[in-house]
Specification:
The chain has two domains: about 60 residues; about 190 residues, SGNH hydrolase (Rossmann fold, 3-Layer(aba) Sandwich). The chain is an alpha/beta fold and about 260 residues long. The strands form three sheets. The chain has a five-stranded parallel beta sheet, sandwiched between helices. A two-stranded antiparallel ribbon has the order 1-2. It has a two-stranded antiparallel sheet with strand order 8-9. Strand 8 and strand 9 form a beta hairpin. Helix 6 runs parallel beside helix 8 and helix 8 crosses helix 9. The longest helix is centred in the N-terminal third of the chain and has 38 residues. It contains eleven helices and nine strands. The chain is elongated and about 100 Å long.
């Protein structure tokens, strides 16, 4: 061992006579080391506890919170309300499938007698429409009819584009829709609510049918399902869809036919 190394060694717990450190120096260093390790252990304990709480919360979280207002845009909502027609007798609520009525003015004109209002918003899911209703979407008007078509994006819960942390079940989506319908009725008790069955969706037919099987049982509304006219051999008929989700002009024409037959 080198002379330099010998200066830093102790034997049998005693300071060597040639050490450059005193006993007090060693004890202070020892105490400082223990304090540092204790601090590290406390940090590790709290981090571990926080991780455990997070994991337990994640495991026991609600699968689907029908009131969670994620992915809404208050600015767009304000624009949506500003563009709402005055004194509509027919109001549409929903996602991009509803919103795209705006691209079919000729078919839309078939509802002209009802001065219709299109409050559809692309990307909306059940929670978003609940938020819109709670924030004035149908306040200050007295429509005779309210048409609700929502849930296509909720069904896409296992698609990474939507619900990155949630995968709502058919029961959860139906429960969210029922909550939404209650809120609509509370704000517009005079309105007849037409609840549309979810339209077909490519690669999601089983989920669509599961949701429809549940929402058709919701009381106090008129349930309207037009899927029988849109499906061919168990899949979305390409004549009526642009992309397996949204309707073509022919699809909107069928929707108009069926809906007018109900509200006339």
């Amino acid at each position: 061992m080198s002379a330099a190394a010998k200066k830093y060694t102790t034997g049998h717990g005693l300071i060597r006579h040639d050490s450059i450190f005193t006993r007090e120096d060693i004890e202070r260093a020892y105490d400082a080391g223990l304090a540092a390790w204790a601090k590290r252990l406390m940090i590790c304990f709290f981090l571990g506890f926080a991780m455990l709480v997070s994991v337990l919360f994640w495991m026991h979280r609600p699968i689907y919170d029908p009131r969670a207002p994620w992915a809404f845009d208050p600015d767009f909502h304000a624009i949506l309300l500003a563009q709402r027609v005055v004194n509509p007798k027919l109001v549409f609520l929903g996602d991009s499938i509803t919103q795209r009525w705006a691209y079919r003015p000729k078919i839309w004109s078939r509802f002209a007698a009802y001065n219709p209002a299109n409050l559809g918003s692309g990307g909306d899911r059940v929670p978003n429409v609940i938020w819109r209703v709670e924030h004035g979407a149908i306040d200050g008007i007295h429509p005779d009819f309210i048409v609700l078509l929502i849930g296509a994006n909720d069904v896409a819960g296992d698609d990474p584009t939507f619900y990155k942390h949630q995968n709502p079940t058919a029961n959860a989506i139906a429960a969210g829709e029922q909550k939404l319908l209650v809120e609509i009725h509370e704000k517009q008790p005079q309105s007849r609510i037409i609840l549309m069955g979810l339209l077909p969706r490519r690669n999601r037919m089983n989920q669509i049918e599961a949701v429809n099987d549940r929402i058709r049982l919701i009381p106090g509304v008129t349930y309207l399902n037009i899927d029988d006219a849109l499906i061919l051999n168990g899949e979305y008929n390409p004549v009526f869809t642009l992309d397996g989700i949204h309707l073509t002009d022919a699809g909107y024409a069928i929707w108009a036919d069926r809906l007018l037959a109900v509200i006339h």
